[in-house]
Write a structure and sequence with these properties.
The chain folds into three domains: about 100 residues, OB fold (Dihydrolipoamide Acetyltransferase, E2P) (Beta Barrel), CATH 2.40.50.100; about 80 residues, Dihydrolipoamide Transferase (Irregular), CATH 4.10.320.10; about 200 residues, Chloramphenicol Acetyltransferase (2-Layer Sandwich), CATH 3.30.559. Helix content is about 30%, strand content about 25%. The protein has ten helices and 18 strands. Strands 8, 11, 14, 15, 16, 17 and 18 form a seven-stranded mixed beta sheet that branches. A four-stranded antiparallel beta sheet has the order 1-7-6-3, with no helix packed on it. The radius of gyration is 28 Å and the shape is globular. Its cofactor is (R)-lipoate. GO terms for molecular function: acetyltransferase activity; lipoic acid binding. Its EC number is 2.3.1.-.
Length: about 450
């Protein structure tokens, strides 16, 4: 028996420590080589620490939330059939870490080894980073083993793999072009016989794109939410003409005084937080047969990322912030989300979420609740529309700025009447927005 020390790997220049956000194994678990052992986070990126060897987890040396230094031993793996030695006691950390927001899961199958050969004749080491890129591109382990690497002892580096992918892609494009030309020739030939569906044409009819790690996590989270909560949605139209006019009149001064942009999202957020304090059941969660009412309004703002994925940074204790504080917090978190610089605690502990569908000119929608919350508010696009306006002298038709608010809520906790009261109260607050309000 031998004990292998798993150390915190180096994760880039200037990174000296990382926070263990989640252990993916526990003592006694059997693990494979390159299987993810823990999720870690730095102020730059989220990562995983893979196992350097197959074996059994003997001991976890840090708790979730701890921040070990690069090179610290964080876990011990017990390996059967190997004698303990000084060489085996300290397994050097791997230099590559698997970035959870930008790459595929590195816990792919370990490289197959021939039991009849000696350790010196075993297949070469393939790093988790190279494995993840290969998995994304549909390259098998056998194919990787055939590559001539430029690294130490013939190891395949990231650069080697990218060059191989570029060459292989060019070949595939040439094959595809030839297949399309063959199909065209066959279809235009006067003597050609038309089959129901040529095999070459069928192979070009679709493309398989594997989900990246973040998309898989989103998919699992959304399905779990639908399975957990009894989703219902209610809608209400809101005349936000006053609010739009006030924002247009003050956005330049806001930018000048505070150095930040002022958007309608900030005004919607401020009004929503005020109404949540009046209807605290919307700021709750479910624990078995109990409803947990949250004192703080930790407001999540759904943010689209450049790669098409979605993340929800959280403004903690939003009820304590004025409009300026809310605007600065929302702008800062959204910007750092797009730059992949959020810290783990900045996307945790949300109690209510807002998603702005109007950013993409969408009128309305029925968003899925962000568990374990019980409600989510969708803000539709603000559009100019002719509407009937009631006046003391009779009804008139005017051009107004209208948007649709959609509230998805958990019917286990919130009934339609409460949802309707919340939406109506929020509408009244928005429609009565004072044009004399100061920054």
């Amino acid at each position: 028996m031998a004990d292998i020390k798993i150390m915190l790997p180096a994760m880039g220049e200037g990174v000296t420590e990382a926070r263990i956000t989640k252990w993916l194994v526990k003592p006694g678990d059997t693990v494979e080589e390159d299987q993810a052992l823990a999720e870690i986070a730095t102020d730059k990126v989220d990562s995983e620490v893979p196992s350097t060897t197959p074996g059994k987890v003997k001991q976890l040396l840090f708790e979730e939330g701890d921040s070990p230094q690069v090179g610290d031993t964080i876990c011990i793996i017990e390996v059967e059939g190997v004698e303990d030695s000084e060489e085996m006691k300290e397994e050097p950390p791997k230099s590559e870490a698997t970035f959870t927001q930008t790459s595929f899961d590195s816990s792919s199958e370990p490289v197959a080894k021939d039991n009849k050969t000696s350790s010196k004749q075993e297949t070469k080491y393939i790093s988790p980073l190279v494995r993840s890129i290969a998995k994304e591109e549909g390259i098998s382990i056998e194919e990787l083993n055939k590559l001539e690497g430029s690294g130490l002892n013939g190891r395949v580096t990231k650069e080697d793999l990218l060059k191989y992918i570029e060459t292989r892609t060019k070949k595939l494009i040439e094959i595809e072009k030839k297949a399309k030309q063959d199909i065209l020739t066959a279809q235009t030939s006067p003597t050609a016989t038309i089959s129901e569906q040529p095999a070459s044409e069928s192979s070009l009819a679709h493309e398989i794109v594997p989900m990246d790690r973040m998309r898989k996590l989103i998919a699992e989270h959304m399905v779990r939410s639908k399975q957990t909560s009894a989703h219902v949605s209610s809608f209400i139209e809101v005349d936000v003409t006053n609010m739009v006019s006030w924002r247009e009149a003050n956005k330049a001064n806001f930018q000048k005084f505070y150095g930040d942009k002022l958007t309608l999202t900030h005004l919607f957020a401020q009004a929503t937080v005020a109404e949540i304090k009046r209807y605290p059941l919307l700021n709750s969660s479910v624990d078995g047969d109990n409803i947990i009412l949250k004192r703080d309004v930790n407001l999540g703002i759904a943010t689209a990322l450049p790669n098409g994925n979605l993340i929800v940074p959280v403004i903690k204790r939003a009820e304590t912030l004025n409009l300026t504080g809310l605007a600065k917090s929302i702008n800062d978190l959204a910007q750092r989300a797009r730059e992949n610089k959020l810290k783990p605690d900045e996307i945790a502990a949300g109690t209510f979420t807002i998603t702005n569908l109007g950013s993409f000119d969408t009128l309305t929608g029925t968003p899925i609740i962000n568990q374990p919350q019980v409600a989510i508010l969708a803000i539709g696009a603000v559009k100019k529309r002719p509407v009937v306006i009631e006046t003391p002298s009779g009804d008139v038709i005017g051009i107004r700025q209208i948007c649709i608010l959609s509230l998805s809520y958990d019917h286990r906790v919130i009934d339609g009447a409460l949802a309707g009261q919340f939406l109506k109260s929020l509408r009244d607050r928005l429609e009565n927005f004072s044009l004399d309000q100061e920054l």
